[in-house]
Design a protein that fits this description.
heterodimer, A: 318 residues, mainly alpha, MetI-like fold, 12 helices, 2 strands, 1% strand, B: 312 residues, 71% helix, elongated
């Protein structure tokens, strides 16, 4: 088991290297960190030199990433010029802000989706199943920004600013009390939840139905087990196997910052600076967020694989 | 004894046999016909297909019939941002352009992007999937790693980086297509991997057919169903991706409207004039919904496991 984990981690290192290298080259090709300086030269020669030095702009574009790799290997992820902070600090503070949305949203959406999936699968072709299926179709078709804008306009603008979440309202997101946190975080959490519940419940329904049609479920019924025991112990446990991978991916994506939701609700997470950083040639910040996100994807994928073994004892790692 | 040597019973028996044989020999329905029937029975899929055709027709016809051009400014509405009126059914945008024409014209751009993305990504995915599944080896490993790479690098990053350089409709579509081919590649690879072990493929190989001919004549016709489903659903994903990108201000450059661009332009005034966000958003949702209905119906129609003509 331990050897398996080590092998998996080692296998992703070249992949991560290629990903970061191409991101670095791609961003360097399309953006220019010196764009602001051409107008004011030679007055701002000092700043020009500082930026050139920070990004090693005098070296070839294809060689430049290696300087970054060298620094990153020693734990120095560089500095964001837009936010005026070291990238590692930003990842810590903003990453935590993002997690405050991501963890409740993940817990809520997974729980609700699972309940809906079990209901739909055990009441196949009933009125409730049809209603849920139609709803999930609409939910899947709704882009995140539509959900976010609708929630914001309805609950934070028209209805007397219940959630203190007026558009462009950026203060007070650092919650001093739990009540304050709830009032500013509810709408973004709800947005993230609605968007994922639709797809998750549909996927869960398919997974659950596939299991409920299996022979061992018929056997379990035939030997007289209670309906509840058949569905929850024999059905759900097997249906969880394909779902775990999906959840791992969802959670890692949520944790690495949701650009749309966080921008709409002016939430100081990792999403908005990522898009801004791309526009303003903040290469260190962009690479920092990418490496953070890929660590999450790799880690949670690994956790999912380990959980497979727990859920299905037939799976062996060697 | 008659000349034919058949008794009455024998004749009766014979004709019953022939009837039976005829029953067996009644032309079995082809896979395509079965799929078509299942599709017609699938009410939602039919609604989706009719809906998408109607929306597309509207998008194509309306800009012709309107007296305004999509980038034409109405001098009377120059102050901008008019509400709904007889002159401008959807109102005007902040510099006095007719929003109805812009919405329908934008819908046309969005659909065009979706179509190009679906076709291009499917072509790339099917070709690479067939090659990887049939030949295996290093090329399969390489493509598997590329798929993993796409999991690590956020799609939004790739789009944002390239959207800066190429910001017209078709190049944006190509960039999106280059991101979305991995899904169908995995599907086709898996299917080809199974099919190449079938007897008829081995027979073709034994008869001396070249790999190219085997792939095109014997293997690919058997993956058409899943590919069509994926093509449809990819179009839906493309609509969503394009509108998200435009919402962030990274999509097709103005003055060309797309549905996402229109939401982006109107979102600042959502509290006073929500209708200008809701209308393009409605079309985004309606198109995606229709496409997903269609894809779901197709999936049921081409699913060989689906029993007889029973629609799901």
């Amino acid at each position: 088991m331990f050897a398996y984990v080590i092998r998996r981690v080692l296998a992703t290192i070249p992949l991560l290297f290629i990903a970061l290298y191409s991101v670095h080259v791609g961003v360097s090709f399309t953006t220019d960190p010196l764009a602001e300086f051409y107008q004011c030269l030679p007055r701002c020669q000092q700043g020009y030199d500082l930026i050139s030095d920070q990004y090693d702009l005098d070296t070839n574009i294809w060689v430049r990433p290696f300087a970054w790799f060298g620094d990153a290997a020693t734990g120095d992820l560089g500095r964001s010029n837009e936010l005026g902070q070291p990238v590692s600090t930003i990842l810590k503070t903003r990453g935590w802000n993002t997690a405050q949305l991501a963890i409740p949203a993940f817990a809520l959406s997974t729980g609700v989706a699972l309940m809906l999936a079990i209901y739909s699968a055990t009441h196949k072709y009933s009125a409730g199943d049809y209603a849920l299926t139609s709803l999930s179709f609409v939910g899947i078709a709704l882009p995140t920004f539509v959900v976010g804008l609708l929630l914001q306009t309805t609950f934070a603008v028209w209805w007397q600013d219940w959630f203190h979440n007026k558009p462009f309202w950026t203060q007070g997101k650092h919650a001093d009390s739990f009540g304050q946190f709830l009032s500013s975080a509810t709408l973004p959490i709800l947005t993230l939840t609605i968007v994922s519940v639709a797809a998750d419940s549909r996927f869960g329904r398919t997974a659950m139905l596939e299991v409920l049609n299996a022979d061992y479920i018929r056997t379990a019924r035939a030997k007289g087990l209670s309906r509840r025991r058949v569905v929850w112990r024999h059905g759900l446990r097997n249906a969880l196997i394909p779902l775990v991978t999906l959840w791992a991916l969802n959670f890692s994506i949520l944790l690495s910052g949701s650009v749309i939701t966080e921008s709409i609700f002016s939430w100081p997470g990792l999403g908005p600076p990522f898009i801004d950083g791309l526009g303003e040639a903040d290469i260190d910040l962009v690479l920092g967020i990418v490496i953070f996100g890929s660590f999450l994807v790799i880690t949670f994928n690994l956790i999912a694989d380990v959980l497979y073994g727990v859920l299905d004892p037939r799976i062996r790692y060697d | 004894m008659t000349e034919t040597g058949l008794t009455a019973e024998a004749i009766a028996l014979r004709s019953a046999e022939i009837r039976g044989l005829e029953g067996l020999a009644s032309k079995p329905m082809s896979f395509g016909l079965l799929a078509w029937r299942r599709f017609l029975r699938h009410r939602l899929a039919l609604i989706g297909a009719v809906g998408i055709v109607l929306i597309a027709l509207g998008f194509i016809v309306q800009p012709w019939t309107s007296s305004w051009d999509f980038d034409e400014i109405d001098p009377i509405a120059l102050g901008g941002d008019q509400g709904i009126s007889a002159q401008h059914w959807f109102g005007t945008d902040d510099i006095g352009r007719d929003l109805m024409v812009r919405t329908f014209h934008g819908g046309r751009s969005s659909l065009q992007i979706a179509l190009v993305v679906a076709v291009v990504s499917t072509l790339i995915g099917v070709t690479l999937g067939a090659v990887a599944g049939y030949f295996g080896g290093w090329i399969d490993v390489l493509l598997g790693q590329v798929t993993n790479l796409f999991l690590i690098v956020p799609a939004l990053l790739v789009l944002a980086v390239f959207a800066k350089r190429w910001d017209n409709k078709n190049s944006l579509a190509i960039v999106i297509a280059c991101l979305l081919w991995t899904g169908i590649q995995r599907v086709v690879r898996g299917l080809v991997f199974q099919i190449k072990e079938q007897e008829y493929v081995q027979a073709a190989r034994a008869a001396g057919a070249r790999p190219g001919r085997i792939l095109v004549r014997h293997v690919l016709p058997n993956v058409v169903g899943p590919v069509m489903v994926n093509l449809t659903l990819t179009a839906g994903t493309a609509i969503a991706l394009e509108s998200t990108l435009s919402f962030l201000g990274l999509g097709v450059k103005p003055p060309t409207p797309t549905l996402g661009n229109l939401v982006f332009e109107a979102k600042g005034r959502i509290d006073s004039q929500p209708i200008k966000v809701l209308l393009p958003a409605f079309f985004i949702v309606a198109i995606t919904l229709c496409i997903n209905f269609l894809g779901d119906g197709l999936r049921d129609a081409v699913d060989p496991k689906a029993a007889g003509e029973r629609a799901g």
